[in-house]
Design goal:
Largest sheet: none
Shape: elongated
Strand content: under 5%
Order of helices and strands: HHHHHHHHH
Oligomer: single chain
Structural class: mainly alpha
């Protein structure tokens, strides 16, 4: 009987997987997924950036230009309304009430323009790239313009009332020549008027408007010079009175010397003293003439100094803003266009 041999063939053993290879495979898969995610996020961020830049250029800059254009007419309307009320005539308080509507309208225009500027400013976070740099320059120009216009309105009642009869500043009291019977009285009256007037000038120096500030500094210096020249001329007038007295004394001494048939030495002494006094008189006259001329010059300059604030300085400043701001807007638009095509 033939016996069957047992089957010695065994099933192949299962291969053990290498953990390291498994981990590497998973990592590669994750990297592939992550890379795809990054590409998607980057693309999405790029699209968002382009949309944000397009919104900045097409909508927000246009809104800013539209709102800024309404600020200057609102300023002019307020200034005209306030001045018309004062010329009625009216007190400062009454004029402020009469022009309150125009002032509120200016404030609304200014607030709207600042809000539009804030929208532009918030359109781009970075300040380091070309868009950020151009945007910062545009913001600085606009903020300077809005501050200037707000200062022009806020400080106008103080500026306009400097020389108004009855206003606290009382600078009209500086012109006291016809009211004084002597130069010392003129100096006294001038000093009384200069105190509150210079205080008002000091308040005006705090304005946000550069034209007012520059005027206030110059005006304050001019008033100080008026005070100094008034003091010199007053002292010179008093010294002249003393010189007249000394002259009378010399005449008396000469008459006495002639009556006594005085010696030549006594005559020489009197002559030397008279020569010294004459030198003092000439010096006093020179100081008086210089101070008097400068005093009159400062008085004559005052109307032009005040009038130039609006006719020259404010007009020049606004012209500068009107030239610079559109350039800053165009530069920003050009930089944005460059970013959009990249």
């Amino acid at each position: 009987m033939t016996m069957e041999q047992p089957d010695t063939t065994t099933a192949p053993a299962r291969r053990k997987r290498n953990p390291a290879l498994l981990i590497i495979g998973i990592a590669v898969a994750l990297l592939v997924i992550a890379a795809g995610t990054i590409v998607g996020v980057t693309h999405f961020a790029g699209e968002q950036r382009k949309e944000s830049l397009s919104l900045l250029k097409d909508d927000r800059l246009n809104a800013l230009s539209d709102t800024r254009a309404k600020v200057s007419p609102a300023v002019n309307a307020y200034l005209a309304a306030y001045k018309e009320a004062r010329n009625a005539p009216a007190s400062r308080a009454d004029a402020e009430k009469a022009s309150q509507k125009q002032r509120d309208e200016f404030r609304q225009a200014s607030d709207a323009a600042r809000a539009a500027l804030q929208n532009v400013k918030s359109s781009h976070g970075s300040g380091e790239d070309p868009v950020g740099v151009a945007l910062q320059q545009l913001v600085e120009s606009h903020e300077g313009y809005f501050d200037y216009m707000e200062g022009l309105v806020d400080s106008y009642p103080l500026f306009e009332g400097l020389f108004r009869e009855g206003d606290e500043a009382g600078c009209n009291g500086l012109f006291v020549g016809s009211k004084a019977s002597s130069l010392r009285e003129r100096q006294t009256l001038l000093a009384q008027a200069a105190g509150p007037c210079r205080k008002a000038a000091g308040d005006l120096k705090q304005s946000k408007n550069a034209a007012y500030v520059e005027f206030a500094r110059t005006f304050d210096n001019r008033v100080a010079e008026l005070e100094a020249h008034a003091e010199v001329t007053a002292k010179s007038e008093e010294s002249y009175t003393e010189f007249v007295r000394i002259k009378d004394e010399f005449e008396t001494r000469l008459d006495d010397a002639e009556a006594r048939n005085a010696s030549d030495e006594e005559y020489r002494k009197i002559a030397d003293e008279a020569k010294a006094v004459n030198a003092q008189i000439r010096a006093n006259r020179s100081e008086f003439d210089f101070a008097a001329d400068r005093y009159l010059d400062r008085v004559r300059e005052m109307p032009d100094l005040v009038g130039d604030v609006f006719s020259k300085n404010v007009a020049a400043d606004i012209k500068h803003f009107d030239a610079v701001i559109p350039l800053r807007v165009q530069v920003l638009k050009d930089v944005v266009d460059t970013e959009l095509v990249e």
